[in-house]
Amino acid sequence: MSSGAHNFGTVALLSTLAALAYALLHAFRRLRLALVGKSLPPGPLGVPLLGALPFMVARPEVALNQWAQKYGPLYSVWLGEQLHVVVSDLGIAKGLFETQNMVFSSRKETFLKSGIVFAGRGISAASFGESWCRNHRLVAKYLNSDAVPDYLAGLEVETAEMLKALYIKSQGGTLPLDPHPHFARTSLNNLLTVLFGLRTDTVDHPLVAHWLKLTQEYTRITAPLSNAVDFVPGLRRFPAWTGIGRARRLHQSVVGTCSALVSDVDRRMKAEEDVPDCLARHLLKAKEEESLDDLDVVVLCAELMLAAVEKTAAVVSSLVAEIAGNADVQARGQAELDRVVGRDRLPGSEHEKDLPYISAIVKETERLHNPLPLGVPHMNTEDATYRGHFIPKNSVIILNTTAMTHDASLYGEPNKFDPERHLKGTAKSTDQGYPIFGIGPRACLGKPLAQHEIQLAAAGILWAFEIERVDTSADATAQEDAPAPLRVKLTPRHNRVSAVLGYAKAA
Ligand code: HEM
């Protein structure tokens, strides 16, 4: 026998033994639990050391959905040595949180996101404890639904600025464009105002493209299941292959950018300049009393900017893409705006409650185009049991919110864009609520701000423009592995648009 064939035989034997040992270990784990009358939720077995990680490399949500079909809406899966419990049903998610809210409201402090990107600080990646409580309390003061009404006038100004910039950049509707950077700038400006009391003056300001790039990198390297290195500690010896280097660079870049903004607020406060009330000022003033160090302040601000900008902009871009492809929805939304707002002023936040169809368009976009398809994983701090399934302490809980919002038993024809289903009192009305902002004490802190921003953007764009999608299939610059960029033609809807937007050179 040749040495090559011999080596192959040895490798095959060792692999088989490793797989057997792994299967035995899992069988033993399950048997041990069964002996004391406990059974884990069912789930796939996976492979030695890595568990199910190899099946989740490309599109984790596809693998998760296939397992949900096979094992049901509550199943367990090992990723490396970490047990994950995946919930794909809204009723079960609500059930878990209604009965054991506090038990399920921690997070696993992951190696990449928590340890490197946020340097063990911040809110979203922190386990449930004193530091999370303090940070959550400090930030909530500036973001909860009591605080947001103070920002509404500013959000309206930013929306009007965004519409005007779209009008100008598209040369009064003659040039197709990608509106996404404009939506990102609006969201960035809203956050910069809340955090630092400042804003960018144009979409071409370098901070807009820089921050968009950082948030996209953040999304790529911190997606809930993207990092084998979080669950297989042995991989940490290979920083070049495992995203560790990228996470370090992201940390440096994000902290560098936000440190400069925080330092400027600090300098202005020390020079006794007039600094508007903003989160950075509040945190700097409270540093001693709240035992915050410099990095705490910077990471809190950076985290909010990372959490906010791209997700909010992504929803608005998806909304525009959907409207461009649904002439009936567009016409119905515009008819509502003409009726409620008229053509001599822009829709404002005072109109929101009188625009149920626009709200329904927003809800339907969020249902279909969830910008955080698997939410942010939770962790349970105590052993728990749900409908006979044992969920051991320190399991990572994935709320598969996309599966929940595509549940055909709640939303008939779940892949269809149909705002009508959110209109109360109509034949199609379902009103199941949807969990894209999360559930329980760890639910999104920015929801009130994001919802107002998106609603104002939706109403403003529909008020101002006829939206038409431009075909990008022949775009030679498009990258093969990236989604086609959104390109739309935004034609002013009526002859009052330029005047109301304050654009003097109107046709
Ligand atoms: C469309 C926009 C947004 C979506 C879909 C979204 C979604 C989410 C989700 C799913 C979570 C995890 C909830 C859970 O664990 O149950 C979360 C957490 C969080 N979000 Fe958002 N978010 C959005 C915008 C924002 C904005 C604008 C901000 C800040 C200004 C923000 C700040 C946060 C923070 C700080 C957390 C961590 C909460 C915690 O762990 O205690 N988000 N968000």
From TrEMBL:
Coiled coil: none annotated. Pathway: Secondary metabolite biosynthesis. PANTHER family: CYTOCHROME P450 MONOOXYGENASE ALNH-RELATED, P450, PUTATIVE (EUROFUNG)-RELATED-RELATED. This is Cytochrome P450. It comes from the Eukaryota. Its main location: membrane. One of its GO terms (cellular component) is membrane. It is found in: Membrane. Belongs to the cytochrome P450 family. Its cofactor is heme. Keywords: Heme, Iron, Membrane, Metal-binding, Monooxygenase, Oxidoreductase, Transmembrane, Transmembrane helix. It holds the Pfam family p450. SUPFAM superfamilies: Cytochrome P450 (SSF48264). GO terms for molecular function: heme binding; iron ion binding; monooxygenase activity; oxidoreductase activity, acting on paired donors, with incorporation or reduction of molecular oxygen. PROSITE patterns: CYTOCHROME_P450 (PS00086). InterPro entries: Cyt_P450, Cyt_P450_CS, Cyt_P450_E_grp-I, Cyt_P450_sf, Cytochrome_P450_fung. Heme binds at residue 444.
